[in-house]
Amino acid sequence: MIRSMLTVPWLAVALMAQPAPPQAPPVQALKQFLSLTDAQATQLTQLRREQGQAVQVIAQQIREKESALRTLLESGGADAAPVGRLVLDVNDLRIQIRETNERYQAQARQVLTATQREKLGVLIEAAKLQPAIAQAIGLNLISPPLPPAPPPGRPGAAPPLPPPDGVE
Question: Band of the pLDDT at 53, cuts 50, 70, 90?
Fold first, then answer.
């Protein structure tokens, strides 16, 4: 009994240490707003996954260059040429990330129909209001939106309602 009580916490720690499988971002509201088909939503999700993988490779290179830069600077008396080279390399990699993001965004927009791209323009304009909305919420001028309810069966979801009287 004691052994099983001690095993449970270790099992929980081991399970929490496992990386969570990547999940597709929720797109139901966007599907509804843009009238996306399931195929379009799947294609956009796949493009987003590919973009994330491409950016992750470049981000790892940035981390390596920044680590080398820190090592040079912490060693004292670092020569300006290698330091400058690393700074320029990091800047070039950041530009690569921006270009990668722009390329994938253009590909994603090609998935949309002309009508959907017009509706996307409304979202782009609305996104520009985000700072003003956050400040208005912060000053209690408007109420924040309610978070979406979790799907049934998920943690935090309300328990299912009992059937009406006389119904089994």
Answer: very high
Question: How much is the pLDDT for 66?
Answer: 96
The identity of residue 25, as a single letter, is P
Evaluate whether 55 touches 101 at the Cβ level (below 8 Å).
yes
- Give the domain ranges of the chain: 26-111, 114-142
Residue (of 132, 101, 108, 135) closest to 30 by Cα position:
108
Q: What DSSP line would sit under 51-105, residue for residue?
A: HHHHHHHHHHHHHHHHHHHHHHHHTSS--HHHHHHHHHHHHHHHHHHHHHHHHHH
Q: Which residue has the tokens 């496992």?
A: 18
Label residue 12 exposed, middle or buried (CB < 10 Å: 0-12, 13-18, 19+): exposed
> What's the CATH number for 26-111?
1.20.120
Poorest-pLDDT segment among 1-5, 26-30, 87-91: 1-5
Give the integer Cα–Cα distance in Å for 84 and 95.
17
Q: How far apart are CA 4 and CA 145, in angstroms?
A: 44
* pTM for this entry: 0.65
- pLDDT, tens digit, 9 for 90 and up, residues 130-144: 999 999 999 999 999
49/66 Cα distance (integer angstroms): 25
